[in-house]
Amino acid sequence: MSTTPLLFLPGLLCDEHLWHHQLRYFGSRYACQVASLTQDDNVAAMARRALQSAPERFALIALSMGGYVAFEMLRQAPERISHLVLLSTSAGSDSPRRRQDRLAGISMLQQGRFAGVTSRLLPQLVHPSRVAESVATDVQLMAQRVGGEAYLRQQQAILDRPDSMQTLASIQVPTLIAVGDHDVLTPPAESHAMQRAIPQAALHIFERCGHLPPLEMPDQVNQLLEQWLLAGLPAGQ
User: Fold this and answer.
1) Of 8, 108, 17, 105, which Cα lies nearest the Cα of 65?
2) Beta-carbon count within 10 A of 55 CB
3) How far is 147 from 142, CA to CA, in rounded Å?
4) Under a CB-based contact definition with an 8 Å cutoff, are residues 64 and 210 in contact?
5) d(Cα 163, Cα 167) in Å, to the nearest integer?
6) CATH number for the domain including 44?
7) 236 found inside a domain
8) What span, in angstroms and rounded, lies between the C-alpha atoms of 67 and 211?
9) If you compute the radius of gyration of the chain from its CA atoms, what whole number of angstroms results?
10) Does residue 1 form part of some domain?
11) Is the CB of residue 157 less than 8 Å from the CB of residue 42?
12) What is the 3-state secondary structure (H, E, C) of 109-137?
């Protein structure tokens, strides 16, 4: 079994709790660490901070905004990353509509209104069948813990991030891409595009799952990561 440390990167308005099922499952066998992505307002600085506190070499597991940081870490220090998992993310730039939504969120916060994750936003983050479940409460509590100031920094970093599509062909580590079939923020088509661009990447689709598989389907995520780590190669093809 590999003993490569695992470094987890959370998404927008997420903290360590996003990965608490994975930390519990893998923590007795692997050195696990969750990077903080709340302190910087650009992706390059987020990546540098994560690298400064990370082990010398590690497997990188990233979700959504964490994926944008993962691509930057690959540009800054590709030799330190042994394996890559990209969950619910995209390598391209925002669509005009997504950019407009982000700017609207920033504008609301600048007017003094940070609502966190509202009940109206929950269906964009989790599968409709889970909107009334405890996972929805977890998502809302994470957002409140991260808070408005960090949200502003994160959204600015996302808006200013580089397009990473040109980075994909240079990725030389075993790569697993996974996404929920009901992910409306980073739809499966974007994961298919990454799989085509990354040499020998594997793709897994979670059924009846939204944008947050580590919370929505923790057992399936754990099993998928277990296969990938044991084999030393992507799982799920």
Assistant:
1) 8
2) 13
3) 9
4) no
5) 8
6) 3.40.50.1820
7) no
8) 13
9) 16
10) no
11) yes
12) HHCCCCCCCCCCCHHHHCCHHHCCCHHHH
